[in-house]
Amino acid sequence: MEKKHIPLVDRTYLLPFILIISLFFLWGFAHAILDVLNKHFQEMLDITKAHSAMVQAMMYMGYFTMAIPAGLFITRFGYRKGVVLGLLLYGTGSFLFIPGQWLASFNAFLIALYVIGCGLTFLETAANPYVTELGSKETAASRLNFAQSFNGLGCICAPLLTGLLLFHNDSQTGSGNIAVPYVCIGIIVLIVAFVFSRVKLPEIELAENTEPIKEGKSLWTHRLFIFGLIALLAYEIAEISINSFFINYVVEQNWMNARNASLVLSFGGLSLFMAGRFIGSWIMRCIRAEVLLFICASGTVMTTLVVLFDIGIVSLVALLCGYVFESIMFPTIFALSLRNLGNHTKRASSFLMMSPVGGVIGPLLMGYIADCTTMVTAFIVPGIAFVVVWLYARKMLFSS
User: Fold this and answer.
1) Residue 257 CA from chain centroid, whole number
2) What is the DSSP string of 13-45?
3) Dihedral sign, CA of 341, 116, 267, 384?
4) Are 24 and 124 in contact (CB under 8 A)?
């Protein structure tokens, strides 16, 4: 179970690793701001939960439609140009919120979010596999978890800043100017794009598959990769669904108003999420990633069951604890799915980056169930998704 200490990052790649970490913060911010927008648009435009879930749907549809083109672009032109193009798209989408605010058009906001989603696809398709290659294969999952911890920091900042901006005092009604936070992040993104355009990231030569394979063996013959792709989709459905309706859930249980709920999401759930990634990254330097993934998958199944049982404030505590358990899932599944793929790695990464289409499926389904029944009942969606992740973790644990 134990393994010897191995440096997290090779000294040669320390500067590229630090630069890439900044990208994780930026897309964490972009993802988490959606969780506030969801409730904001429900109140401002008087729309249903299912309709407001289009905020997530359009953003993550960008991942689905752009994942393969992003993978092809990065394979041909390299990681650095993929990062720069992604940042330019991210910045463009952010500034599109200005005409959206002027028009007061929900559809205009959705177009802007789609463009941002396309940009984030390039960033994640480049950065996730790149981080796994900046050191020993044994520490790949731990290294990606550490980098993804800064994604969690962005997730904390987004609902904190936008929640305070959009929900005033004790009001649950969003009345702030949503273009302001997006213009600010757009300026920062373009500055980062300029920096990346001036630095040279070393291109990593990927090793051939270590397994004995037949010449021309297809990526789709790797069954563990296929299972990993399914598990990653399930995780995205669960994570994005919970984040999308966290504020709705807390408000409808009459525990607090929307403004305070956004603070609980930031300082409670997403802070625990970030802490979980830092702790998970450290633990995985001592035990195998498959073991920790199985433990955490079991934890998410149990905490979601407590939410479904609806036992008062205990359910809220369980939901917050679930953020700790789910924190290591994306980077760990991603790293395990790329294991032993050799020269298939960049292409496999682009397919894995289609998994955020779960952000289309999960919130729409959860919002529809919540509109028809209750917000508590709607947690059956992430519950089933976490069971799929548990099955994958069990398979990886006993196949390694």
Assistant:
1) 26
2) GHHHHHHHHHHHHHHHHHHHHHHHHHHHHHHHH
3) negative
4) no
DSSP assignment string, 131-169? HHTSS-GGGHHHHHHHHHHHHHHHHHHHHHHHHHHHB-T
What are 175's two structure tokens?
Answer: 């009345």
Determine the average pLDDT of the residues in 169-182.
62
* b/e burial code for range 184-201 (CB count within 10 A of at least 16 → b): ebbebbbebbeebeeeeb
Q: Is the predicted pLDDT of residue 345 greater than 80, yes or no?
A: no
Query: What is the mean predicted confidence (pLDDT) over 99-114?
Result: 87
Q: Is 202 exposed, middle or buried (0-12, 13-18, 19+ CB in 10 A)?
A: middle
Residue 160: which of 248, 255, 29 has the closest Cα? 29
Determine the 3-state secondary structure of 174 from DSSP.
strand
The tokens describing 360, both together, are 């289309």
CA–CA distance, 370 with 5 (Å, rounded to integer):
48
How many Å apart are CA 103 and CA 225, to the nearest integer? 45
Q: What are the tokens at 161? A: 């800043």
Q: pLDDT tens for residues 180-233? A: 888 888 999 999 899 888 877 777 665 444 444 444 567 888 889 999 999 999
Token pair in block for residue 375: 């917000």
Task: Give the burial string for 217-228 (b: 16+ CB within 10 Å, else e).
Answer: eeeeebebbebb
CB 380 within 8 A of CB 308: yes
How many Å apart are CA 369 and CA 363, to the nearest integer? 10
Place of tokens 């407590």: 306
At 280-333, the pLDDT tens digits run 888 887 889 999 999 999 999 999 999 999 998 999 999 999 999 999 999 899
CA dihedral over 48, 54, 55, 56, signed as positive or negative: positive
Residue-level length of the chain: 400
Which DSSP string do the residues of 310-371 spell out, in sequence order? T-THHHHHHHHHHHHHHTTHHHHHHHHHTTT-GGGHHHHHHHHTTGGGHHHHHHHHHHHHHH
Backbone φ, ψ for residue 167 (5° rounding): -105, 110
